[in-house]
Each structure stands twice: as C-alpha cells, then as structure tokens.
Amino acid sequence: xxxxxxxxxxxxxxxxxxxxxxxxxxxxxxxxxxxxxxxxxxxxxxxxxxxxxxxxxxxxxxxxxxxxxxxxxxxxxxxxxxxxxxxxxxxxxxxxxxxxxxxxxxxxxxxxxxxxxxxxxxxxxxxxxxxxxxxxxxxxxxxxxxxxxxxxxxxxxxxxxxxxxxxxxxxxxxxxxxxxxxxxxxxxxxxxxxxxxxxxxxxxxxxxxxxxxxxxxxxxxxxxxxxxxxxxxxxxxxxxxxxxxxxxxxxxxxxxxxxxxxxxxxxxxxxxxxxxxxxxxxxxxxxxxxxxxxxxxxxxxxxx
Amino acid sequence: xxxxxxxxxxxxxxxxxxxxxxxxxxxxxxxxxxxxxxxxxxxxxxxxxxxxxxxxxxxxxxxxxxxxxxxxxxxxxxxxxxxxxxxxxxxxxxxxxxxxxxxxxxxxxxxxxxxxxxxxxxxxxxxxxxxxxxxxxxxxxxxxxxxxxxxxxxxxxxxxxxxxxxxxxxxxxxxxxxxxxxxxxxxxxxxxxxxxxxxxxxxxxxxxxxxxxxxxxxxxxxxxxxxxxxxxxxxxxxxxxxxxxxxxxxxxxxxxxxxxxxxxxxxxxxxxxxxxxxxxxxxxxxxxxxxxxxxxxxxxxxxxxxxxxxxxxxxxxxxxxxxxxxxxxxxxxxxxxxxxxxxxxxxxxxxxxxxxxxxxxxxxxxxxxxxxxxxxxxxxxxxxxxxxxxxxxxxxxxxxxxx
Lengths: 304, 403
Fold this sequence. Notes:
The complex is a heterodimer.
Chain A: H1 8-15, H2 20-50, H3 65-72, H4 74-107, H5 112-120, H6 127-138, H7 143-150, H8 170-193, H9 196-205, H10 210-239, H11 242-247, H12 255-263, H13 271-302
Helix pairs in contact in A: 2-13, 3-13, 4-5, 4-8, 4-10, 6-8, 8-10, 9-10, 10-13, 12-13
Chain B: H1 2-11, H2 30-37, E1 41-47, H3 51-67, E2 71-77, H4 80-92, E3 103-106, H5 109-116, H6 139-142, E4 143-144, E5 147-148, E6 154-160, E7 162-166, H7 178-187, H8 200-213, H9 226-243, H10 258-266, E8 272-275, H11 281-287, E9 294-297, E10 303-311, H12 319-329, H13 332-342, E11 345-346, H14 355-363, H15 373-376, E12 380-381, H16 386-401
Helix pairs in contact in B: 2-12, 3-13, 9-16
C-alpha cells in the first residue's frame, strides 16, 4: 500500500467503501474461525463433560459431582503444591538467568552474534527431547552419576542424589530452566536493541552510576517484554504435560499429568473428573496470568 | 447458544453405537471378505514399545498380507486407552462408518471399556477360517479378564507372567516363592520394584502378591465379594507397605510404566522385575541390552496368564481387511514365526495342529534366558474380573502409593 504511487490511495478509497475494521476482520476470519472454533469448541465440550454430559454412556445429568470428586482426591491435592513449585521456580530461575545472559551478551561487542546463536540453540529443541536428555544426564544411571562414580565420589548408583522421579521436582525444573532461559534471553536481547544504548549513554553523561542506569533506564525498557515472556513461561510450565510425565513421579504428579491419568482411566465414568481437572487448570492459569499482569502493569508504570 | 447448538449436534449421533455394524462384511462368506479387503489399508493401533514386535509386524506379517492385497499400517501408541479414546471421540463426532481406527490390540480393561460404550464389531471371530485352530471352549478365549467376549474380539497371542532376574544377583532359592523374593529384597534394598498401577504390568505384579497373600486364590475368581476381598486385601496392603523400604528408591516412589522398569533393569539400577512378556527377554539378552546372566522363574504361587486380542471398532472403514489381518494372525505358520522371532506364545491350540507343526513349536529354543513354554505354563492362574482389577488398582493407590 505505502509503496503505491501518489494516485493509488485516492483510487483505493473510491473503489472500496468497506470500513477498515470489516476488511481486517474478513481477512482474519479463516484463521479466527479455525482457532476460535477449535478452541471454543474444545473448551465448551470439556466444560460440558465436566458437568456430567456423557453421551457415550447414554445420557447426562448436570451436576458438580466431578468437581467434588476431584477436590476430594489426595492425588489432586498433593499435586497443587508440586505444580505451583515447579512453575514458580522454573519461571523465576529462567527469568533471572535469561535476563542476565541477555545483558551480558549485549555488553560483549565482538562475539555478540555468535553468542546469540549459541543462546538460541535450545529454542527449536522439543521439550520431550529436552526431557529425555535430562533423563540421560541426571538419572541415577545417567551421565553425571557415571562421572561421579568414575571420580570416586559415589560408589553405587543409588548414592547419587535422585534428581529425576524425585519428590521436589529438580529434574523437571532443570529442563524448564534449560529450555526457557534462552527464550527469555532472546526476547530481552530484542528489547535491548532499540536505542537503549543511546539512552544509557545520555544517563551516564548526566552522572548516573551503572546501577542507576540499570534500575532507571534499562529495566523499565525491558520489563514489559520480560514480564510478557515470563507470563508465557509460567502458563506453559503450569499446564505442560510431557516433561513432568517423563521426569516426575506417578504420585504426586503435576496437575496436567493427573488430568491425563483420569482421562486414561479405563472406566469411562471417570471422564468428567478428567475434564473437571482440565477446566480447573485452565481457570487457574487464566487467573494467575491476570493477577500477574495487573501486578506487573503497576510495577512498570511506577518504575520510571 | 453456541454451546447448546454443539450439544444438540452431538446428541444426534449418540446412542446408536452398533447401528453401522449392519454394513460389516460377513466372515461366513470368506471369499466375499477377501474380495472386499483387496486393496484396503488396515490402520492397526497397537502398543509400539516393543521394537522386535514392530519389526515382525512390518516385516513378515505385512509381507503375507501384501499377497492378499491388504496393506498394513501399524499405528504405534503408548497406551491402548488412547486408541479407545480416539474411537470414542469419532463416535461423538458422528463418524459412524469411516472411522480412522480399523483394529486395536486390546485386552482386559480396555476391552471392557469399549464394550461399556458399545464400540466393537462383534460376531466374526468364530467364523474366521483359522478359527479351527482356536479352542473356543477355553475360558481364556471366551472371557477376557472375566468380561464375556461374545465374539467381539479375536485372540492372537498369549501372555504369561514371569519373574526376570539377574542370576549373578539372585540365587535359585531367592526366586522360589514370593516370600523368598521379599527376603532377598530385604537383604538387598533398592534392587527390586514394580510399575505403579494402573500400568498393565504393574497391576499384574500387585495381583501376583495378592494371589500369594490369599491362601486359596480361587476364592477371588468370579464376581466381586467384599467378604473375601476385604480381609485378604488388608493383609496385602500391609505386606506391600512392609516391602516398601526394600524397593527401588526405598519405595518412596514407583516407576511410572513398565518401560521405565525395564530401563532400570537395563541400566543395572534393579536386579529383578515381573513381566508379561517373558519371550521377548531372549532378544534383549542376546542384543546385550540385558545382561547375559538374565534368567526367568515362575514363583511358586504360579504365574498369571491372559490372552491378547484384536478388536475391530464398529465404525472401522476397512472392516473386511481388518478381519483378514485377524485371520492371518491365527495362521499356525505365522504363530510359529511370531514365537520364534519375538517369543510371543501361541494363541492357537497346539493340540489342534498336525504333529509336524506341533513338533516345530516344541523345537523352538529361545535361549538360556527364557523359560521353556512347558515350565512357564505349568502352574498358570487366570486373571481376575476387570472390575476386580480396577478396584485393586484404586485401592493400591490409596493404601500403598498415597499412604
């Protein structure tokens, strides 16, 4: 449009009487239909099944039994603490590490592009591959355990600390941090490019100390992107299945793993519980993200 | 509004489960079945974690079917319930005659689930030409974990449980009985475990302990009886909790699946485990995945046997070709090849075979790691009813795992 000749805009206005928003909507509608239809359809059907809609068992009655059953299940109760711990620690560690890495890479001049490629190397690796690598690395018969045994630090495999299928979730957190730190770093690096250096230079000439530059110039500039990224990381680590399934325990397991355990229950009557738990996870993530965004919005406004 | 519309749309297709089965070909007219099957592709959903079996399915079996004009497409899944869920989802979506699942390797609880929702094509197994080699009076062929089969699935291999152990770690007298195994585990903490039920094999491990705890396991067969189950199960949970400190990771956690258990054995984290597929151990020992000193034993409580079946969903698009596969799986030559290649025990009744073929089965030597079929099946116990199994799994979670 902008590349067109001087006469083009006028001709376009004459020909198209359709309002701009309608045009955009029309262009987006195929994508919106697919995304909206599949998403709303899936969530709607899940919600209906969680409330007792079971056509495959011949009939339905609307009730909250599934939610009560899920709430009473010790496997679900034990899962909350674990899931929050994993999501919170993974997000915090990935954010701190990712931002630090980005700031460091931004400061080194010569090797910046090389370091950026190294940093972004884990990005295309699927989580499931990352989880299997962590298993090979961290399990009691893994690479690290073999190294400590060769070095005489441990005598048997069982002496090596349990980092996978452990009660705390170290292996799961390690995988998320390994995978998500570079994600935070790459986004932060992108936020650091747009004229940040000039502003820092100006602050320095006005007598700002390095810490003041960081606190009052760099941080406010990058925090919206960092906040947005960490929300994504939190929502993902809270609702993701494959990593806690491979690196965690069958009990207590992360909420998505428990939901799938219900879904895979051979008794079809357990299906409403699976859906109820999925609805709970979705609502929790939505609430957490809303709270987080409100908090960070206030923080960002106050910072400068 | 949209939700209501969606619900109405779905309810139109609900409730007429086997309605489409009317179009299913009739196995009595086998030539017609063969003619329809020619050119079809069968999507066989099956557990894909057994590399050796995958090779056999995509090699020997696939080649045989090719000659009949049937293409076999193996769809590997980690858990059979995923395939059942897929059929269920398609039923809800109204796909009543062009379903994407043509055949499922199924048994026990998943078969019961499918029956509960009326998902199977029925009535063909006894009419397959190779049904002549199957003993349809055998209770293990007429019922599956206590659920009457009623012609809704076709048998293809036999599973027998056994203890797999490293003979350099366990002596002969350690593997005599459940008690001697528990004593050995107590003396060697951390070297034995079982997968957390509802894993299929982990559930069998718990039932092995259950049979041993009951003085007379026959009492548990048949319909559920709280008066029998209550006292025995209380004793069982006590016993399994007492065993916990001797297990891998001090019983603090259990492996999530049988794959994990076998990986622990291969990685020398444990020295013994229970399996449903003792024949497959030969290949792993030969390949060096398992130590060469791997051996098998049947504890004196006896082992647990069941049959594996294939079921055809009511909405399968290629029902005729799926029947051809079910028939081919029962061909004595193929059963023998499967036994040789994978150690899968035959589902056909060896008594019904010509003596030459019987001798060929007897002559198969799976190597020193694997128990001969006669020893393996000398003291075989049947499976409990599916509802019993589900209850035991739930009770194990509450009384052992979550305690």
